[in-house]
Structure formats: structure tokens, C-alpha cells
Write a sequence for this structure.
């Protein structure tokens, strides 16, 4: 049987969400491991004043593509951008492009989605469900299509504790919801959203669950594979360790902790931190594309792509390794020395938010105001609190995912493919991975140079001295206010000092006697 790379040779691949975090890694891996792939068609929209072509050019000059560039400097010729806005009717693809895609595409990878947790329901539905429906209908017209691979999320069914590799019945019939939301104005939809999403924490997980149902209902004769990754983190090995380019999920939390901004967060020390490296997800996705095309399973296979059941690691351990990495490799211009703690206790967390977040932010903003600058720290903390408020749900509890299909797929690969498309997370060394992840956020998200680490350490020493000075001043202040002015406080103070003195004399006397 052909190896995975051989199978992709001469094939035309369509990818949505190719400009996103996972999409980019998918394009890179395809180009690097399947150099004979015929064409990679990517659906891209213009954004933030940049045309589609400019965006694709920018994407391909990114460091992620360095290895591919070395192997084949002309690699960009294989990437064919197609203008598309997924929220528009017909995905806003021109008739000529539709004609091109339907006649040549052999496999579709659907990665595009809105992954924001606070997305208004109508927009999340439009992108995560209706666009999926439209892409399926385009796929139905493709004359040489072998497989359609949909990227879902392991948290689509996070209202369940144990999650099998099946598509669960929808919380509400997607078609009915689409029809009813169509005539409602945004205000009404906003009001009824909590009732609609029920026991799911946000519109993201709700609409991803609906998308899976739409796929099941409307796939007809297509060969479908559904990949459900858990919390996708920086790359483990490929194209190099620690590649990450965004603040999503834990990355923003790690950065905020490394900058000394985040000091406390509600999370359970003992809960499994189900992180999965992005290269593992992409390797599994490509392997699933090959398997679905070659074996054409009778029913759509769902692949839970998680680590918790295979090689578990916990939030408490993550906290420890993140902190120790950032102490050894500090981020530049930290606000305070990194020292974040997680706690599952609500009151404790509120206390530390007040003492370690709100109070320092107030003092710093006061200082900025007094020195004629614009205050900014309170605003940053408000944003941070909003973000952690949305993430806490995922860091405070555990889920159990079945991963039989991931194991089955691994057993179907040749020894060579198992190396090239490695998704065996038993081999993952967590401390090493977390260290590379944190360094990756420094290098690739914050664009900080590793050669500046001595200066960053010097800055931390300066912060430590400021803290010592501040604490001493505070102590003297307390002394002046409470001790010097109140007879009772003075008496207590003298009592404590004389007690210490007595203990000291006693120990000195007993040590002289014993000599
Ligand atoms: C040591 C500690 C140990 C910790 C242990 C605990 C860790 C717990 C972590 C738990 C993670 C759980 C994740 C669960 C994931 C489910 C998996 C998935 O399927 S889905 C995948 C997961 N999906 C997600 O993770 C999505 C979650 N994110 C969201 O929903 C939204 O971003 C938001 C509501 C949090 C903030 O909305 P909003 O306030 O409107 O802000 P915008 O977004 O508009 O960004 C504005 C600008 O700020 C930038 N920036 C952003 N963050 C940070 C930061 N932390 N800092 C600095 N900067 C940051 C951002 O780049 C942007 O810059 P620019 O482009 O303007 O230049
Ligand atoms: N990151 C994670 O932790 C996890 C992600 N997933 C799933 O993986 C997939 C990819 O996620 P990730 O790469 O992190 O997400 P990103 O937000 O990084 O990428 C989203 C992609 O979708 C595209 N997109 C969004 N809206 C539109 C639109 N209206 N028209 C055209 N394209 C659009 C974006 O294009 P543009 O650049 O133009 O905005 C971008 O390419 C998603 O399906 C997500 O649900 C699952 C589990 C975890």
C-alpha cells in the first residue's frame, strides 16, 4: 500500500483556515512531507487592509516555512489562494473558482472557525455551522473528492464527563436554530443565548457541536473524518520545537504569568491539563485524510486527539514548569517578578486578585498619572480578568476522552509513516515540552531575542530591589502609624521584642553550657 506521502503525490488539496494557527502548520507539513503534492488551494479573505495576495505572501515569509524554503525555494508556486469569505452566501467564491475547485480537488481539510469564546451566537453559527454546511455542499459537487476532514474540538461535548468517539445528538436541531435566528434581531439572540447553549460554557463549543451534527446529516456519500483536538499548544518537534504565534488558550496565560502580570488564577492543581502539540494534531489530520481516502470507512470516524488518557500531565505541574522556565529565561520588561499560583478556592483567588492584581495596578497607574502619562495597567488587568474568566471552566475540571481511533490509525501506519507523521504522545516529555513552549512564546509571539536574556535578568533584579525597598518603606510606615502612636501596640511590640530577646539569651546560654 502507498505510504502517506506517496498517496498525497499529484493530489490537489483544499484547506480552509490556512492563515490560522493550525492551518499554517498543516500547509507547511504538507509541503515538507509531501513534496510531490500537486496543489494546495487555500480559501483566504482580505483582512485588516491587506489583500488576499499580500496576506498569503506574508504567511509564506514566516519563520515557520524556513525548512520548506530550504528544501524548495519555489514552494509558494504550489500554494494557490482562492478568494473567499466564509460568512457570505456561496462562501463568496467566484463561479470560475468554483469550477476550478469542483474539477480538481481530491481532499478537503476544513479548519476555519471562530474560536472566540465570547462570539455572539449569530456570528458563531454563521461561521462554524452555516459555512460548514456550504462547504459540504461545495464538496458534494467535487468530481474527484476522496475525503472531507473536519477539524472539530474535543470540547464540543464538554457538557459530558466521558466522551466517546461518536457524534452525539444535537442540543437543538441545527436547521431549526438557523431558521429561527434568521429573523431575530441581535438583542433578542443575545438574551436567549444562555438558554440555548444550556450546559455548555460558550457559543464556541455549542456551535462546534452543531457543526458535527450538520456534517453527519449532510455528508451523504462523502467520506468524512472528524478530528477533535483538545487544547492545541506550541509545536513539539516540527518544523522546530516551540513554534506558536498567538495568545489563544494557555499561551496568553503563560505570557501574562511570565511578564509578572498574572499572579493568581482559578484552576485545579490535580486536574489534567489536556494540551496537545499542534504538530501532533496536524500529523494525525494528514494520516486521517489518507486513511479516510484509502479505506473509505462505512461511517464517519471521529478521532479524539487528546493526551490526558495516554500521557497525563496536570495544571499544577504546568504551573511549576512555566514558572521555573520564565525565571531562567525571563521575558523582557516584566511588570513584576514571575510568581503565579493557581488555586481552586474561589475566596482565596478573589483575595489574591485584590492584593496582587488590583492593588499593584492601582499603584502603577497612580504613578503613571502623577508622571503625566496615560494610565494603562487597570485596563490590562480588566482584559486579563475577562480572559481568565472564560478559560477557568477548562482548567478547573477533567474530562475523559476515548482515543481508540487514534490508536487504530497508528496501527495502520507503516513504521516509516509512524516516524514522519508521529502522533504518539506517549513519547512526549512534558517538562521539556513546556520549556520549549514558554521559550516559543518569547521568541515567536513576543518577538524577543534570546540574546537579551541577561538584560531581562538584570531587570528582574531591579524589580526585586524595588520590592524590598517598597516592603521596608511599608513596614516603617506601619511602625509609625500603629506602633508609635498607640500605647497598646507599643506594649505588644515591646512584649514581642523582649520575648525574642529572652529566647535568644536562653539559646546562647544553653549552647555555652553544652560546650
Ligand atoms: C502559570 C500559569 C499556569 C496556568 C494554568 C492554567 C491555564 C489555563 C488555560 C486554560 C486554557 C483552556 C483553553 C480551552 C480551549 C478549548 C479548546 C478549543 O477548542 S478553542 C481554542 C481556544 N480558543 C481560545 O483560546 C479563544 C479565547 N479567546 C477569546 O475568546 C478572546 O480572545 C477573549 C475573549 C479572551 C479576549 O477578547 P478581547 O478582549 O476582545 O481581545 P482580542 O481577542 O480581540 O485581542 C485583542 C488583542 O490583544 C491580544 N491579546 C489577547 N490575549 C492576550 C494576552 N493574554 N496577553 C497579551 N495580549 C493578548 C490579541 O493578540 C489582540 O492583539 P491584536 O490582534 O489586536 O494586535
Ligand atoms: N487552537 C485550539 O486550541 C483549538 C482549535 N480547534 C479547532 O481548530 C481549527 C483551527 O483553529 P486555529 O487555527 O487555532 O484558529 P485560528 O483562529 O488561528 O484560525 C482560524 C482560521 O479561520 C479563518 N476564518 C475565520 N473567519 C473566516 C471567514 N469569515 N472567512 C474566511 N476565513 C475565516 C481565519 O482566517 P483569517 O486569518 O482571515 O481570520 C483563520 O485562517 C478550528 O476549527 C478550531 O475550532 C480545536 C481545538 C483546539
Amino acid at each position: 500500500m502507498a505510504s502517506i506521502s506517496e498517496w498525497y503525490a499529484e493530489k490537489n488539496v483544499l484547506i480552509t483556515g490556512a492563515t490560522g494557527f493550525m492551518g499554517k502548520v498543516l500547509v507547511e507539513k504538507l509541503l515538507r512531507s509531501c513534496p510531490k503534492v500537486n496543489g494546495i488551494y487555500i480559501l483566504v479573505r482580505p483582512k485588516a487592509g491587506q489583500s488576499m495576495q499580500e496576506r498569503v505572501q506574508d504567511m509564506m515569509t514566516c519563520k515557520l516555512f524556513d525548512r520548506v524554503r530550504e528544501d524548495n525555494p519555489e514552494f509558494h508556486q504550489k500554494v494557490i489562494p482562492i478568494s473567499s469569505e466564509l460568512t457570505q452566501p456561496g462562501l463568496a467564491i467566484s463561479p470560475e473558482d468554483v469550477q476550478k475547485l469542483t474539477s480538481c480537488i481530491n481532499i478537503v481539510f476544513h479548519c476555519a472557525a471562530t474560536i472566540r469564546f465570547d462570539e455572539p451566537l449569530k456570528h458563531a453559527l454563521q461561521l462554524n455551522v452555516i459555512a460548514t454546511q456550504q462547504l459540504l455542499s461545495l464538496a458534494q459537487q467535487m468530481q474527484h473528492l476522496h475525503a472531507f476532514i473536519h477539524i472539530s474540538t474535543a470540547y464540543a461535548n464538554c457538557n459530558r464527563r466521558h466522551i466517546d468517539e461518536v457524534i452525539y445528538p444535537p442540543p437543538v436541531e441545527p436547521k431549526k436554530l438557523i431558521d429561527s435566528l434568521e429573523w431575530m434581531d441581535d438583542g433578542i439572540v443575545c438574551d436567549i443565548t444562555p438558554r440555548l447553549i444550556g450546559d455548555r460554557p460558550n457559543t464556541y463549543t455549542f456551535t462546534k457541536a452543531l457543526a458535527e451534527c450538520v456534517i453527519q446529516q449532510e455528508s451523504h456519500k462523502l467520506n468524512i473524518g472528524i478530528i477533535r483536538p483538545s487544547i492545541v499548544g506550541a509545536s513539539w518537534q516540527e518544523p522546530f520545537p516551540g513554534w506558536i504565534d498567538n495568545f489563544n488558550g494557555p499561551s496568553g496565560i503563560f505570557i501574562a504569568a511570565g511578564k509578572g502580570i498574572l499572579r493568581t488564577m482559578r484552576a485545579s492543581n490535580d486536574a489534567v491539563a489536556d494540551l496537545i502539540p499542534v504538530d501532533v494534531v496536524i500529523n494525525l489530520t494528514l494520516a486521517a485524510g489518507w486513511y479516510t481516502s484509502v479505506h473509505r470507512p462505512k461511517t464517519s470516524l471521529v478521532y479524539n486527539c487528546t493526551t490526558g488518557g495516554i500521557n497525563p500531565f496536570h495544571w499544577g505541574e504546568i504551573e511549576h514548569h512555566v514558572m521555573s522556565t520564565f525565571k531562567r529565561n525571563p521575558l523582557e520588561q516584566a511588570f513584576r517578578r514571575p510568581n503565579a499560583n493557581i488555586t481552586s478556592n474561589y475566596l482565596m483567588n478573589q483575595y489574591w486578585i485584590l492584593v496582587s492584581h488590583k492593588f499593584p495596578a492601582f499603584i502603577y497607574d497612580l504613578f503613571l498619572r502623577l508622571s503625566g502619562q496615560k494610565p494603562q495597567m487597570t485596563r490590562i488587568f480588566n482584559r486579563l480578568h475577562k480572559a481568565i474568566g472564560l478559560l477557568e471552566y477548562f482548567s478547573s475540571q477533567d474530562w475523559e476522552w476515548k482515543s481508540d481511533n487514534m490508536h487504530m490509525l497508528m496501527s495502520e501506519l507503516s513504521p516509516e509513516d509512524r516516524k514522519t507523521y508521529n502522533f504518539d504522545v506517549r513519547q512526549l516529555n512534558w517538562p521539556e515540552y513546556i520549556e520549549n513552549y514558554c521559550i516559543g512564546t518569547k521568541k515567536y509571539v513576543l518577538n524577543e531575542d534570546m540574546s537579551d536574556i541577561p538584560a531581562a535578568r538584570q531587570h528582574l533584579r531591579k524589580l526585586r530591589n524595588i520590592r524590598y525597598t517598597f516592603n521596608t518603606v511599608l513596614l516603617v510606615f506601619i511602625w509609625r502609624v500603629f506602633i508609635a502612636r498607640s500605647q497598646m501596640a507599643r506594649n505588644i511590640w515591646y512584649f514581642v521584642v523582649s520575648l525574642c530577646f529572652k529566647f535568644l539569651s536562653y539559646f546562647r546560654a544553653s549552647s555555652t553550657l553544652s560546650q
